[in-house]
């Protein structure tokens, strides 16, 4: 349910957390918030801490904020999958509630509390050596994610099943509805996915009007995607292996030890995670970091991460370099068509 943060019924939430966990929640402290959710730190009567994340779209105040119903269920399933199948530190999901009666003001989930601070918060205090070690830790997380393989393109749901692709909520005030879920996959091939992207099947509604030039351009892009000679070879299949993408793996979503910021203790905010071909996964770990690092530092650390990951997942390195450029260019063109 899309509601602004001030309509979250905090007392109702506290009562329901108590009911679901079988012990009293004695306090809910506003912890952190994003454009699409509000997070609380819950103190239980046994002194344990939990994190409660409530879906609430702040952007709704300014228009937009349309959210696919799949967003939070997929995030819950993705956290569970990563917890079970990798060594990447993610919070354990303890409970999830759809808020079907609307009493809380948004669907919510309960997670374990991971003590730590965001890497972005610590960055300005770190030495050059520590920053290099932190970059190496990020590379290890990224490489482990890229080592996962899936049978279809879409998003994760319960029991590791691949279902329709989910998305970030829209911040466009002109949007009135999410993409039609019947057209959002799962897709059994990169070719099928790109055709759906080019056809705007994965675009929020209503669709913008297109000029005759834009429609002609789309036709050309579609014809190129439909060229089977592009896909029917072993090299294309290698570069198009389907993996899991965290779509916002930035310093703010990486929790580190307060005393040792080179050690990652949690990777958070998995909303809109998706399974896509290797060439579609473009890590941009230092975006929105202009205020805490120079362009030179950002470039140097990005190259370091890429080289470390290349040693462990060479297929991704190839897929995101010249060998896979034809595919990533097609994706760019499909998104613009």
TrEMBL record:
InterPro entries named among the record's database cross-references: AGP_Transferase (IPR051678), Aminoglycoside_PTrfase (IPR002575), Kinase-like_dom_sf (IPR011009), Tyr_kinase_AS (IPR008266)
KW Transferase (keyword) present: yes
Pfam families attached to this UniProt entry: APH (PF01636)
Keyword Kinase appears in the UniProt entry: yes
SUPFAM superfamilies: Protein kinase-like (PK-like) (SSF56112)
Keywords for this protein: Kinase, Transferase
Matches recorded under PROSITE patterns: PROTEIN_KINASE_TYR
Domain Aminoglycoside phosphotransferase intervals: 67-276
Recorded GO MF terms: protein kinase activity
Protein name as it appears in the record: Kinase-like protein
Organism: Neolentinus lepideus HHB14362 ss-1
